[in-house]
């Protein structure tokens, strides 16, 4: 999902740039929204990965006991 987040961020930057060049405020706003969505997806993915790591770590400790 992190790749999807990066794609949303890139798409958002492109939209924002086109909006600035053309003076289209709506497109600029959409671009900023896409970038925020991408950052949120990335953060979620990182949190999920950390949670899996903690779960695996706890599982390993329990198996050894």
Rg, rounded, reads: 18 Å
Alpha carbon gap, first and last residue? 35 Å
Query: Sheet with the most strands?
Result: none
What's the overall geometry?
A: rod-shaped
Q: How many β-strands, per DSSP?
A: 0
| Number of contiguous helices | 2
- The proportion of residues in beta strands is under 5%
* Order of helical and strand elements: HH
Overall pLDDT confidence = 90
Structural category is mainly alpha
Instruction: State the helical fraction.
Output: over 70%
Low-confidence blocks of residues: none
Which short descriptors sum up this protein?
2 helices, 65 residues, mainly alpha, 94% helix
What does this structure look like?
By secondary structure, this protein is mainly α. It has two helices and no strands. α1 packs antiparallel against α2. The mean pLDDT is 90.
Which helices and strands occur, and which strands form pairs?
Blueprint: H1 2-22, H2 25-64
Quick structural summary:
By secondary structure, the protein is mainly α.
């Amino acid at each position: 999902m992190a790749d999807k987040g990066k794609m949303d961020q890139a798409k958002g930057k492109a939209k924002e740039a086109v909006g600035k060049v053309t003076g289209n405020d709506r497109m600029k706003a959409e671009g900023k929204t896409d970038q925020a969505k991408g950052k949120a997806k990335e953060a979620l993915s990182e949190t999920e990965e950390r949670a899996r790591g903690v779960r695996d770590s706890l599982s390993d400790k329990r198996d050894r006991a």
